[in-house]
Amino acid sequence: MARIIPLTDARTLGDPLAAARSAPAVTPTGMLADTRGRSLRDLRISVTDRCNFRCVYCMPKDVYGHDYPFLPHAELLTFEEIARLARIFRAHGVEKIRLTGGEPLLRKHLERLVAMLADIGGLDLTLTTNGALLGRKARDLKAAGLDRVSVSLDALDDEVFRAMNDVDFPVARVLEGIDAAAAAGLAPIKVNMVVKRGMNEHEILPMARHFRASGHILRFIEYMDVGHTNGWRMDDVVPSTEVIGIIGRELPLEPIDPNYAGEVAVRWRYRDGSGEIGVISSVTRAFCSDCTRARLATDGKLYTCLFATEGVDLRALLRGGATDDEIGNHVAAIWARRADRYSEIRSENTRALPKVEMSYIGG
Ligand code: SAM
Ligand code: SF4
Ligand code: SF4
Asked: Any idea which of 25-29, 157-161, 213-217, 279-283 has the lowest mean pLDDT?
């Protein structure tokens, strides 16, 4: 583990290099802790802000049209920069890295980055994808050292799915991607379904029936007010309790213990032993008190909450000649100041706050 430092003077955070260089080195507990005692264990890395889908709840077409100003290539962190940061985060206690986006499989030669991250050692390496390119890439990703994948799939009905991804992408190709991932050994596979009222709640049961006994873990995600482009309304959220009710009436369920403290999904299993599902209740049952996640956006900005207003520019440090210790100290200082708990305090007022978009920060 790296040398752990206490809080850098908050006033120096405006100047990253000054903050990084002034930070003292102390090792009180061996782990970083934020102002609410939460450690830094997970890092989500967005490798591109682009996507081949236009899911209506994430990248609505009228906003993300042909002229949308996606980041130019020079602004993206290179694989070398990402791997260097990952090593620094690992040294500060991060145990799990999830690659995401945008659509991470659109980033060319992603398996090269996976191999570089696998080389660090001691990391659980996962990836979240819409599955469109998984059929082609699953084997290479596994060979490079990826442990598992989560695949997003919002409906089994082809017409509903095509309407939700809004690029007319067929469900069969995603199912092929899931099969390819399973064959490559990227298991257990999690299948994530965002449920939006009036769009796909009638797909809850067909999805449950399809994935029960498949060995894959279907998880239902409450539709969230990330960013500002999706026109989120509370009325569009289907609470997890409702999801459990709908499934449980046909396929009896019972709750099971979390795999580890702070697990985001609440687990349920089918009473007949045919598998388990999870519900992620980010809106109706906030889990901020256990949130150990940091997010590295495509351009190297670090965010300590999905609903953050501003990130801290780590790319400026990387490209400005800072040493690993200096960057590590800066990360430690940012984490020590962290007080985020957006979902716990969500209200009409918080909804109006400026927020970054999910496709940029990485879901
Ligand atoms: N493109 C990849 C994918 O779809 O899996 C990775 C990035 S995507 C932003 C990550 C996850 O965020 C997906 O499972 C997606 O369904 C979810 N997501 C996007 N917008 C959301 C929203 N408003 N509420 C809840 N989940 C959302
Ligand atoms: Fe793309 Fe994923 Fe967002 Fe859908 S949820 S638009 S696949 S980034
Ligand atoms: Fe973590 Fe922020 Fe989500 Fe709360 S709202 S669980 S602090 S990312």
From this structure: 25-29
